[in-house]
Amino acid sequence: MSEQYPALLVVVPLLSALLISAAGWLKKRLCFPIAVVALGVAAYASIGLLIRVLNEGVIIYRLGGWPPPWGIAYYVDHLNGLVLAVVSVVAFINLIASQKSIEEEFPEKTGAFYTLYVLMVTGLLGIVVTGDAFNLYVLLEIASLTGYGLIAMGQKDRAPLASLNYLYMGTIGACFYLLGVGYLYIVTGSLNMVDIARILPPLYQSKAVLTAFIICMVGVWLKMALFPLHAWLPNAYTYAPSASSSLIAPLMTKVMIYVMIRLILTVFTPQFAFSNLAISNSIVWLAVLAIVMGAILALAQTNLKKMLTYVIIAEVGYMVGGAWLGNRAGMTGAILHIVNDALMTLCAFMVVSNIVYKVKGYAFEDLKGLLRKMPFTMGAFVIGALSIIGVPPTCGFFSKWYLISGALKAGHYGFMVALLFSSLVNVVLFFRVLEISYYEPFSNHHVGDHHPEPMAEAPLTMLVPLIIVAAGLVLVGLYTGDIVNHIIQFAIPKGIV
Amino acid sequence: MGDLIQLLVAKYNYWIYITLMMIGLYAMIAKNNLVKKIVGMNIFQTAIILFYVSIGSKKGGTIPIIEHGHGAAGSHVVHAADYINPLPHVLMLTAIVVSVATLGVALALAIKVYERYNTLEEDEILAQIREK
Amino acid sequence: MKITGLIIAILAGALLIYATADFPGWGDAASPASTHVSPRYIEKTMEETSVPNMVTAVLADYRGFDTMFETTVIFSAGVVCFILLRVFGSEEPKESLYRHVLTGVTIRVRAGGEIPPDSDDFERIDVMWTPFDLIIKTMCRILIPFIQLFGLYVIAHGHHSPGGGFQGGVILGASIILFAISHDLRTALRRIRERIDALLCATGVFIYAGTGALCLLLGLNFLDYAALASILGVDPITARSHGIFIVEIGVGIAVMATMIWIYNNVSSRGKYDEGL
User: Fold this and answer.
1) Does residue B66 lie within any of the structural domains?
2) Any idea what DSSP says for residue A266?
3) A149 contacts in chain B (CB < 8 Å)
4) pLDDT tens sequence across A160-196
5) B127 lies in which domain range?
6) Does residue B127 belong to the interface with chain C, where contact is any CB pair within 8 Å?
7) ipTM above 0.85?
């Protein structure tokens, strides 16, 4: 069965999503167990696949039995395997933690919500594991459409408009990617990523290839919310329901960064992508701008969730800048940051989810006195904050370390200054939140009674996964050396120094 | 100038698709009404579909169906140059379905926005939001 | 905003046009797209899959995995429209219109008023009603079975003529939507209930993914129809042809059900009360 892992980790969630949809109409109580089993199998298969890749090297799985490039092939290497494991584990933990909030917010449509949840995870896993450029577009659209639906279920006031704006920009991004694939097809005749990479080298001087590269990149940047194409992200993630935002925020942008790195490393080899120094330099400056603007705009917010979305925009800047520095340390930092940022964002958004469940609000005034009332949640928030700031031994420190050393090696001091500036701003942001939650007395204007309660933590199913994630932040930090030396080292081709 | 004209004449089909794409893109960015933006999105996607389909054309090729495939002449040799390329058509079947699905979701979202704000013009909606 | 849009459109258009200098000409038979991957599809499809329609063979066999996800896209669009718009148990409408069948007189009943009993003398018409039209109703009633027959033909004949699951499914869905438009939404809902429709949608995609999973359980890779040869009792090449047919049926069912589902939700704004 282990040869079938690449297919299983996409097919089992897909079949389960259909069963959940049917169960939503026939027997509502089955929806959650089916979803848990589906994502559990996907997580198991992706970790098993990662172990297989570590032992055997690159794995190619032919769908339909046809050899590529005539059929679609799944292509799993170290980069893939790592991101697959991260995506499936994050989705699984989040599902267990959000059960209570889903049952509370959508009592009549839980079946449909779980269907969209599992379908979104299917789409994300499929994007990461595929080796065919057009298949990536189809799965990107699955992830996007279900994402629009999940986000629009939030507050009636703002969520549908935010989701509609996300739809406009997301569709432009996906269509640009499709156009780029079309340009590649017209000059190479193939859709398989490895095959395109084989055919392209004699054509590197062609205008069509350069244009294809630019359009693909712009499309991917639109979907990952790189400044200045980020306008959809803050509203979409803020007004989404808690369960959706803690699924989509950690994963969607990171998977698109994986797509960008895959395009740079495998389809357009680094030899082509980094050949024009002026372009890579200006993209790193764009990333610097993203980091700085993300940090400044985060300072201006009065609302915890929106502040975190601007922190995500800054983190996207880290990863794009690291990838385009063109050296091994920077690329290692970018790939490591995919893993770390997924976990950090999951931690932060799960904390917000817990807070919303108990206090029914996420503005700064609602956070008063929460440190005493919800100590475990805020403790996990402290660990997440330390990781986003970049304090050892949490994982955030190590990816920043690689990014900074990459910047030094490439001589790009602007990027290094931006990283340090962003860390300082994060210190201000998170200590402001902690100060409000510790020093201010708790105000019960949402709950409505006047007696100070001793401790009103979130229920256990929401708390235990959060503590596991917070512990994971420290564990992943301590095992960074293993991750880099055994996995990421082999994900980056030997040509990059 | 001479070879620009020659370029235009030789590749005019691509220029038409690109013009259509840019009309759609302009509508999505510049128009105020939410439904006009959705229409622009549809034009944009349709232009990409046209672009792909034109990749598969071959002068003198017929439709990609083998006539009398199971009949007496079924075992004749098939030459690739006689039939147009089927692969872009397959890809664009998928793209058409995706564009219909996105259109459906966009319209559902526009209905929800209208139910809340009673208008489909983006500036009026933003004004209502700012008032609150 | 208009100037920004114009500048962006012009810049993007210029970039795209810049690339066309390197494109092959229109209809060039020696272009990379016509010589690299597709000749095998054209030349070998009869002997590898025994399906004369190359587009169907590529769609459902060589690149069948893409098509499965395409069906999932349309399914998820149906679920999203449902989850966004559907309101269960909505309150009584502000006013409803009833028409006395024999005389054609229309009465308007305000909310809280007495509604005529459910008898044959009175029929409910939509608030945005059009005058009673016998011709439209009768013509549609006559045409719809033929449209559905044609839709089934398109699905079944996808192997030999242009057609297939998507096209046939849309035609079938259109026939039901025509019924809903020409009569009214409630009559159509009485024929195909909401729950049946939603279950059909999931069933269609399940047939597709299930066939693939069956091939996986029988030992070969996912969606490798040659594995069905042992169940169907034919040689692997004919098994591919039959596998393509089975998944096309799944696609047809899913697309038909989703078209109806999206129409129901969007036209009645989720209330399932009065349509277009």
Assistant:
1) no
2) I
3) 105
4) 999 999 999 999 999 999 999 999 999 998 999 999 9
5) 2-58+81-131
6) no
7) yes
Give chain C's domain count: 1
Q: Is B45 helix (H, G, I), strand (E, B) or coil?
A: helix
Q: What percent of chain C has pLDDT over 70?
A: 95
Report d(CA A383, CA A377) in Å as an integer.
10
- Which 8-state DSSP code applies to residue A368? T
Overall pTM > 0.80: yes
- Beta bridge partner(s), residue A192: A132
Q: Is C39 inside any structural domain?
A: no
The DSSP string of A284-299 is HHHHHHHHHHHHHHHH
CA-closest candidate to residue C75, choices A217, B122, B101, B74: B101
Helices (H), B11-86: 12-30, 34-55
Domain assignment of residue C185, yes or no:
yes
Inter-residue contact B99 to A153 (CB < 8 Å) = no
Q: Quick one: which of C206, C201, C202, C215 has its CA closest to C243? A: C215
Pairing of strands C95-100, C106-110: antiparallel
B10 pLDDT band, cuts 50/70/90, is confident
In a domain, C24, yes or no: no
In a domain, B75, yes or no: no
Partners of A160 on chain C (C-beta within 8 Å) are: 84
pLDDT digits (tens, 9 = 90+) for A11-66: 999 999 999 999 999 998 899 999 999 999 999 999 999 999 999 889 999 988 88
- Neighbours of A, requiring at least 3 CB pairs below 8 Å, are B, C
- Under an 8 A CB cutoff, do B74 and C2 touch? no
Residue B74 lies inside a defined structural domain of this protein: no
The pLDDT of residue A110 is above 80: yes
